[in-house]
Structure formats: C-alpha cells, structure tokens
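Running this now, will post back.
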Amino acid sequence: MSYENVIIDRREDGVALLVFNRPDAMNSLDADLMRELPHAAREVAEDEDIRCVVLTGAGKVFCAGGDTRAIGKMADQQVKSKAPPSSSFEKRAAWLAKCSEASRVLFEARKPVIAMINGACAGAGLNLAGACDIRYAGASARFRSVFTAMGLSSDYGGTWLWTQILGTGKARQLFFIDAKRNAQEALEFGLVDRVFDDDMLETETLALASQLAKMPAKGLAYAKANLNAALHQTLEQSIEYESRNLMLARNAITEMRKREQGT
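Update: finished.
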C-alpha cells in the first residue's frame, strides 16, 4: 500500500524505517497523516520480513504533535456544522481513537520498535515515541508534552504509556507541568534511553536495529509479549505465561534447526 504522508523505507537487513513525512510542517499530524499512520504501522508490524522497526521523522524534526492549523480548521467546521453536538462529539472521539490505534500497533508489534528522535518531539509525537520499545535521541532533540498548555489532556495512549515508563509521579509531572526539556534533561527524566551527537544518531540507531534484526525473531517476540503481559499480571500469572512462551521459543529453535538441516 502506498502512502503520501508516511514513508516505509525497507532495508535489506530486515530493518524498516517508518517515517513521518511532512517535514515542511514539522511532521505534525494532520488528518491525512493520522489516517495513514495506523495502516502503515500495521503493515510493518505484520510483515515477517521486517525484524525491527525504526520510527522517525523526515528532515530535522521527529514529530511536533498535532497540526494546530488543521485542528483549528476542523474546529471551525464543527462550529458551522448543523449536526447535533452530541453526534459530532461521538464521531470525533471515535475517529481519534481509531487514529490512535497506531500507538497500540507499535506497542504490541511482535518485534522491537525503536524511536529515532531526530529533533522536536512534542504532543502526539512524544506519545508515539512512548509506544516504542527503545528511544534514542539526537543531542539537538527537544521534548514537551504541550497538551495542558493548550487546554487539552492527552492522546495516542500517552497517559497510559508514560505511566508505565516513568511511574505515576513522573507521568503527572510530564503532563501537568509541561516543561520544555532538551535531550540531556529528557535522558535524566527518563523520556529517552540514549543521547548521541546528531551526526551519529542514525548510525547508532540503525546499528542497534540491525543487531536486533539478526537475533532469533521468535525469542524477541515472546520476550516482548512477556513484558507487555507483565503490566497487568500477578507474579504467578507471569511465571506461567513466561514458562509457556519459553517452551514455544524452544520449539521455534528446534523447527529452525530442522529446516537448516533439511530434516
């Protein structure tokens, strides 16, 4: 499937870049990009030839969040609309939830997903980065939740994702205080895992992606499934689930060896 606002750049080593492609608008999310992103995310998540996904932005920006001009136009249209307010509200909420599926797809993908944060990362962009397993940032990257400063709350699963990553105390700071953070401050706060010089960010991120893509895919898939399930399991449930998945991973190794040996 082809997209105008998202690029899927497949590499020969089993890595694919999923790229926000609105560089002239700071890769902000307008209605078209929001519609395309869940489909593109699902495409790379379900493609078995892709072993690791890197989420990034075209140009010098990761994603500046929602396109405020597009949002303003949509609001004006809603004001002028003759549809009952309740009907308009339900449709808009359902539409946003459908677009926000992009976060869930990336989070649940049975393969590693890395955010390569190459510039401004705010609002929905920050929340989509939170849906990734690992976050690498360039030294010039800048971070901000931005929602409460605009009188908004959150989207794309951000409150759930960042509560899991940071803990409830820091997640509340992230959304309530709306501080502007540079890359080093984001690292210290826990928003990213590593910071690199801008000219080394792509090299370091793709080196990790290539390394992960070469590892046994089933083992990584079951490990990620274990980690995701642990968010709502008791220890007893986690042990049972881990044990089952470990045996499935061992079966996968056995089957792979049989194929290699032609037996």
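The two ends are 37 Å apart (CA to CA). More later if anyone needs it.
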